[in-house]
Amino acid sequence: MYYDRLRQLEKDGRKIRILLVGAGSMGVGIAWQIAHTPGMELICIVDTNPEAAVNAARAYGAAYEMAAPSGPFPKRDAVLVTTDPFALIRREHGLQLDVLIESTNTIGFACELCLRALHEGIDVILMNAEVDLATGWLLHEKALEQGRVITSDAGDQHGVLMRMIEEIRMWGFDIVMAGNIKGYLDRYATADSIREEARKRNLNPIQCAAYTDGTKLNIEMALIGNGVGLVPWCPGMEGPPASDVHEVFSLFDFSRYGNLGVVDYIVGSKPNGGVFVIGRCDDPIQVPYLKYYKLGEGPNYLFYRPYHLCHLETPCAVAAAVLDKQSILWPRFGRLNDVYAYAKRDITAGEKITQGIGGETFYGLIDKCSDADANGCVPITLLEGEGKRVPRLKRTLRKDQALTIKDIELPETFLLQAFRDQEKMINSKPGRIHYG
């Protein structure tokens, strides 16, 4: 779809100029991929760890130049490597950036950076699912105001599902379920318990814990739900074990959903790492064709992709944003769903929460905002602190208990204010829970 257009862009002497912020495992992969994608070039790499940024620059394969945030930028033709992205996106430096790829595991910092980039006329790709969920609507509205594009990444599960759903809807199917295929799940995983596995996969242990405890899975499904208008059937979804994706027909009772489209997942199935969609079609003309195409008897049909390729597919989101001014996925339904914090262990009143997502204290479960907000439940993204300002538990929680606003003292942070601003934009219902 984009390959020939990007090749032509390069032949015409033009390339999409990219700023990459976040040089962890995914960032390094993105750097390599940009180097091997026609019509794109990496201008700057930013990470708080200079060594990580240099590692990504080496993966990109071009000469690089270290730049002090407060000093003059090098004039030579090289990839800039620095620790401060805010200096890079200001227009007076003449970098002429087209796209920011946000690939950190921060939320408040990422939100502020994305807002600055949009203000400076730079499109934004969110490899960062956490900020996408926490403030995605706010960022999208700001992008519209500036005539820019902000989009979820194309290669993470929610981006892949959106691309599948677009096609399946075009075929005339109703969406019954958007599904994730999870390899392994341990709600109580911590950075310490998962450290060796993280080392094998070259991942940050906290990030790996967020994958293993299911929080990242729930965030991905909340994002696709908010983009398409799907909800979980129950808090945290059902998530039955399966050995093969085709077992979904016996594991889920699709008839009970009625006209409601849902998000869910299966655990341990082959193909591991893929995604699936259940579409419904009972049209008497179409059904015989679908049987001929070996899709089954219907009216529910399984479509699945046995992989999602993360950084390999990021250039698709870049191309869609720059060439077509299109977002792969954005929260068009607002905060229909969010992911709420549940205790991994007994937590004592007075404890400071130094790590939210992927930490030792909470895991996250998706729920409908209309239900969870009314009960005062706290989105897990809001547990991110800012410097020395971190959340503090006011009341003791028992293992698996939902965290409510009465249980926690949330510090005033950029993220919390951005969340409040977003709430004002998308919901003016009386009696709404206010955080802080």
Q: Report how far apart the termini are.
A: 46 Å
CATH superfamily of the largest domain: NAD(P)-binding Rossmann-like Domain
CATH architecture of the largest domain: 3-Layer(aba) Sandwich
| Lateral arrangement of strands in the main beta sheet | 3-4-2-1-5-6-7
Please describe what this structure looks like:
With 436 residues, the protein is of the alpha/beta class. It folds into 3 domains: 168 residues, 3-Layer(aba) Sandwich (Rossmann fold), CATH 3.40.50.720; 154 residues, no CATH class; 90 residues, Type Iii Antifreeze Protein Isoform Hplc 12, CATH 3.90.1210. Helices cover 33% and strands 18% of the residues. It has 15 helices and 16 strands. The chain has a 7-stranded parallel β-sheet, with helices on both faces. The protein has a 5-stranded mixed β-sheet with strand order 9-10-8-11-12, with helices on one face. The chain has a two-stranded antiparallel sheet with strand order 13-14. Helix 2 runs parallel beside helix 3, helix 5 packs parallel to helix 6 and helix 7 packs parallel to helix 10. The model has no long low-confidence stretch (mean pLDDT 94).
Provide keyphrases for this structure.
about 425 residues, alpha/beta, Type Iii Antifreeze Protein Isoform Hplc 12, Rossmann fold, 3 domains, about 20% strand, 5-stranded mixed beta sheet, about 35% helix, 15 helices
List the helices and strands and how they pair.
Elements: H1 3-11, E1 16-21, H2 25-35, E2 40-46, H3 50-60, E3 64-66, E4 79-82, H4 85-88, E5 99-102, H5 108-119, E6 123-126, H6 129-146, E7 150-152, H7 157-170, E8 174-182, H8 195-200, H9 205-212, H10 215-228, E9 231-232, H11 248-251, E10 262-267, E11 275-280, H12 286-292, E12 300-305, H13 314-324, E13 337-343, E14 362-368, H14 369-372, E15 392-393, E16 408-409, H15 414-426
Parallel strand pairs: 1-2, 1-5, 2-4, 3-4, 5-6, 6-7, 8-10, 9-10
Antiparallel strand pairs: 8-11, 11-12, 13-14, 15-16
